[in-house]
Specification:
Helix content: over 70%
Shape: globular
Strand content: under 5%
């Protein structure tokens, strides 16, 4: 499980005295602890862990933009290094072709016919992709599939 791997990597980073790695892994572990308390679980599944990592990645990307605007290259470098560490824990992204196949399969399975069915389709596709695809990309592709096609003249 991903949470166990992160815990082991944290211990290794502590032994290696890798300060940046220890810092980001420690912060990640604290986020896991908060979610465990919130969900009243002893262990988090990968399905619970991936959104936490994605949220941290988004925060780091926003911070990098802010530090670039503020001309703080030292902080940009630190955030970039932490961002690279975070990305190593995400599962491999699905290709657009794989994602397209999953979306078509789900649309057929739930019998979606119009944009009104987007919620049902999104729920199923998100469950099937399990954090291996960006929600915005999924949403755009589903919307395109379910939107009525303009008549060609």
């Amino acid at each position: 499980m991903l949470e166990d791997k992160i815990m082991n990597d944290y211990k290794e980073a502590m032994k290696a005295k890798d300060a940046i790695r220890v810092s980001i892994l420690s912060f990640m572990r604290s986020q896991f602890m908060n979610v465990r308390i919130e969900k009243r679980k002893d262990k988090l599944d990968d399905v619970d862990v991936v959104p936490i990592i994605k949220k941290l990645i988004k925060q780091h990307q926003d911070s990098i933009e802010g530090f670039k605007a503020g001309n703080r290259q030292d902080l940009v470098d630190k955030e970039t290094r932490e961002l690279e560490i975070l990305k190593t824990y995400l599962p491999e992204e699905l290709s657009l072709e794989q994602l397209k196949g999953i979306i078509e399969e789900v649309i057929a399975a739930v019998g979606a016919a119009s944009i009104k069915d987007m919620g049902k389709v999104m729920k199923e596709v998100t469950a099937k992709t399990a954090g291996r695809a960006d929600g915005k990309v999924i949403s755009d592709m589903v919307k395109e599939k379910l939107s009525p096609k303009p008549p060609t003249a």
